[in-house]
Amino acid sequence: MRQRLEQFKEYLIQFEEDFDRVHAIMDLGRKQQPFGSQPALAIQVPGCQSTLWVWAEKTVCGHWHFYTTSDGLFTAGMAQMVAEAVNGHSTNELKDLSPDWFEGINLQGMISGGRMSGFLNLLKVIHDISQK
Amino acid sequence: MLDIRNQFPILEQGHVYLDSAATSLTPEPVLEAMNDHYRNRRANVHRAHHPLAEAATERYEQARAVVANWLGTTTKEYMVVFTAGFTSGANLVADILEGFVDGVAVSHESHHSNLLPWIRLGTKCKEERVEFTPTPLDKLPEMSGRRLVAIQTLGNVLGEEWPVSRLCRQANEAGHWVFLDIAQSAARMRHYISEWRPAFVAFSSHKIYGPTGSGAVLIRKDLPIHVGFGNRAPVGGGTIRTVGTDLSVRWSDPPAIWEAGTPNLAGVEGMVAAIKWMESVGIDAIEAHDKEITNYMLKRLETISGLEVIGAGQKRGLVTFNVKGLHPEDIARSLGSQKIAVRAGGLCAQPALKTVTQSGLGVRASVAAYTQQSDIDKFIDGLEKTISRLQGNATTTRTV
Question: For a disulfide at B350, which of B31, B45, B101, B346, Cβ 3.0-4.6 Å?
Fold first, then answer.
């Protein structure tokens, strides 16, 4: 996880202009599953602006793979980074998932567009799915 | 066109600030007044007998008349109660009115703070809630009992002007009580409260170039409501005449009973300074500027392909729009990255936006006295750059 987050951090600091950085995050969002294609088991992350869905599969090795989709590209990009960071981890590894894990790339500041903290809600949904 | 931009130090940072409907920026004279309060005039009110405290009490009490006069009325006709802002004012009124009205009448076009307090109040009333559409059907329905009718001068989604004079007259003639929300209009136009005669008026200081955390509610003095302290209104210091050793309580008269604890003195001083600042610029000049700059923005926005302005008709102070195929949050994020401040989302008025858009979302650009045509031009340039980048599907060549 740390390694993938560092890669995102390195990627984002390449952009000198805020405009380019914001659009780079939106470009990451273009990698998401098509919006509207989420399965029935997908969970909607509570938030005020963009709609964000999360669902997951568990591999035979016991590793989780999370999928996200949003109608907003920025939210999709942020969620994509979170999902890629937690993917491949086991239930036990995700037991203590917390915002501290993402310290350094300021995901919390960027993903919380509405009055509700979308980032914290996303982590909670991922945590809850992984611990069921 | 006004030229007062240099009075707003925050604008020196190069922001194009088009989020004034959410909160306005603060000019130097208001900053100076609050600074002066803390540096030279700090003392509590109503409690002490030293010169600083007596002067503070005098200024605080005089502020009520400043507010009333600015809104076209007097403290003889209306009691001015200081609050923490519009929302706390509306909630105070809802609290006071429990048991005094038979029902509520609300409009889905109102923003949440002029809607939720009345929805909650309505659950405690015997008559069912009535919903009305004031524009363009500027007629209130026939309603039983005495209703609290919640209306507003300007909408915060469509920027439409409500027919306040007519709605107040209709409601007053039918024996209903009007709660008038002037949150959006307070910094944009002249008000005629003595003429309109709503039962209640509320606004926030932070939308009139003043500080956050202050505002006021005006309560018409001839209303047959006896003073209670409600179920949720705070009580404590300043709200009582005496408390006996047997813990019996004699409550203060209003407005003291509704201003528990030490008031936001710097906030009230800042609010008065903001009112005086607006009056020094000229309310009519501000209104003319507001109309001119809003029309200019609307005209420029209407030239952008794929952009849909939400709501037809005249706009006052703000324009809400969507761009086909783009999410409002993405537009606002991109503009924000160019130091262009707009608002996106449900605009704290979800029923209003859900009625006029499919998504229930929009982008709102709102102006103020400091907004210049050059701000609008930069906004339009930034918006075109944003749309081009998002619609062009151009992606960065760098990889992660």
Answer: B346
